């Protein structure tokens, strides 16, 4: 039985969820944009607002992941092909120290913007637990697709087509 002047527990949970700094985790609608801040390994600050108007493909990866390495040339090709159409690829390295990632990039350069997981909340917002994992954001910052695991160029092209990027 409710006592006077008490708020039901479920209403409190909904209130706290709506005030969360991680809106994607509690979003009621897929029409809500992801809100994030990321700093690249080179120091560039990226935000939802700064990337508005761009199609953003987020890749969650690791240097030790053979499937991630296999798809790097595909991502580089797609990034170059669709750069003029506003594609930005953020490659979020998951949990490795900066010196290890920098050493890896010396031997295997990438054209994507490289972000360390510690320098963004994207892994938590997108619930990234396997690699590679891809999340596609439209020009308004809304998540319009994802792909878990390596599936090759055709699958990535199909994912990008959801944002209107076709060759």
Protein architecture, described:
It is a single chain. With 167 residues, the protein is α/β, with parallel strands linked by helices. It has a single domain (29-161), classed as Glutaredoxin. It is 31% helix and 24% strand. The chain contains five helices and seven strands, in the order αβββαβαβαββα. The chain has helices spanning 9-18, 66-82, 98-107, 122-126, 153-161; strands at residues 37-40, 45-47, 55-61, 87-93, 113-120, 133-137, 143-148. The protein has a seven-stranded mixed sheet with strand order 2-1-5-4-3-6-7. The longest helix is centred in the middle third of the chain and has 17 residues, at 66-82. The protein starts with 8 loop residues before the first helix and ends in a 6-residue tail after the last helix.
SSE blueprint and pairings:
Blueprint: H1 9-18, E1 37-40, E2 45-47, E3 55-61, H2 66-82, E4 87-93, H3 98-107, E5 113-120, H4 122-126, E6 133-137, E7 143-148, H5 153-161
Parallel strand pairs: 3-4, 4-5
Antiparallel strand pairs: 1-2, 1-5, 3-6, 6-7
Termini separation: 62 Å
SS strand fraction: 15-25%
Q: Identify the CATH class.
A: Alpha Beta
Mean pLDDT: 86
Number of helices: 5
Uncertain spans: 7-29
Largest sheet: 7 strands, mixed
Strand order of the largest sheet: 2-1-5-4-3-6-7
Overall structural domain count: 1
In the CATH hierarchy, the architecture is 3-Layer(aba) Sandwich
CATH topology tier name: Glutaredoxin
CATH superfamily: Glutaredoxin
- Would you report the number of β strands? 7
Helix content: 25-40%
Shape call: globular
